[in-house]
Amino acid sequence: MHELTVAASLCEWALGRAREVEPRRLLAIELERDPLSGLNPDALEFGFRAMAAETELAETRLEWVSVDPSYACRRCGRSERAAVPPRSCRTCGEAFPRLRRDDSLRIRSIEVD
Amino acid sequence: MARIAYQEKVLSKNDELAAEVRERLASRGVFALNLISGPGAGKTSLVERTAAWASGRLRAAALSGDQATDNDAKRIRSAGIPALQITTGNECHLNAGRVLDLLDAPELDDIRLLLIENVGNLICPAAYDLGEAAKVAVLSVAEGDDKPLKYPALFQRAELMVINKLDLLDRTDFRLDRAIANAREVAPHLDVLSLSCRTGEGLEGWYRWIDDRLGRM
User: Fold this and answer.
1) What is the CATH number of the domain that holds B122?
2) Total structural domains in chain B?
3) Distance CA B166, CA B164 (A)
4) What Å distances lie between residue B152 and A34, B127, B186, CA to CA?
5) CA-closest candidate to residue B35, choices B149, B132, B146
6) In chain A, what residues touch B123 (CB-CB under 8 Å)?
7) A82 — contact with chain B (CB < 8 Å)?
8) Distance CA B135, CA A14 (A)
9) What is the pLDDT of residues A3-44, one digit of tens each?
10) Residues of A in contact with B92 (CB under 8 A)
């Protein structure tokens, strides 16, 4: 349901990058999404397409990569990706590493021509 | 063609604003809770009860998010603390910018406790950091006890799960032990409190939890 606001953030970021790489074109944005993002890629793509129309991003593709959620130890800071919440930190043994705050959707790379 | 690597959060702008909110609240000694639930679980009732408890004990205020109306803010003000309504229009969640915009409101002067009642929704509000000290997931026994399994993102991000409407427990198929086990399956760290805003049962535990967290600041 919040895909449109996320699409707006992504579009704003991508317009900035597109202007940085001019005169090359931004062909694709590679996005990492974990299952806890609550995001529907189709809905986000729909929003992105609507906002990108008639901008430098009109032809830019979104590429999706699925990853496990990321957890971070509150004592030592070690982070790891895991399909289920880890019971303890593998480095220091601290109980219950926590889901990293709002880390469910990341830009991994862009492709330019 | 060339690939340029990034590791950047799409919601990084919201996160920057949330960091500013967190820093400003911390500098003022304010403990902020972000209450999240589906519609009707009893967030406003919990804020009302907390407002009555806080009266004469500590200065508190509330921000209440809804897509329309200021009904909740009116209810909370009637319970004894200042409350500001945030109407989000078509948006299904609060974001850090909306909280930041209100930090200098006179209603928030000299407070120690800020209760942020998010828009009723179990999915989207979980994705947005508001700069709070902790997220609180509110569930009621009128819902399914498998909600934590269905909406794990919220429960994993919350510090505490409050199960409300205990007074209705014997009229539903909701099982407390199953709800707690389901929550701990997706979020083993989670604190759990069961209470009834209607009868007052269990509310002492909620107040103690707030007191304890205030004491740690």
Assistant:
1) 3.40.50.300
2) 1
3) 6
4) 12, 12, 6
5) B132
6) 1-2, 38
7) no
8) 30
9) 888 999 999 999 999 999 888 999 999 999 998 888 889 999
10) 1-2
- Alpha-carbon distance B9 to nearest alpha carbon in chain A (angstroms): 4
Q: What is the ipTM of this complex?
A: 0.85
DSSP 8-state code for residue A100: P
Per-residue pLDDT reduced to its tens digit, B79-129: 999 999 999 888 889 999 999 999 999 999 999 999 999 999 998 899 899
Provide the residue range defining the domain that includes B18. Answer: 2-215
Burial class (CB in 10 A: 0-12, 13-18, 19+), A79: middle
The per-residue DSSP string of B99-150 comes to: HHHHTT-GGGTT-SEEEEE--S-SSGGGG---S-SEEEEEEETTS-TTHHHH
- pTM here is 0.90
Q: Are B75 and B117 in contact (CB under 8 A)?
A: no
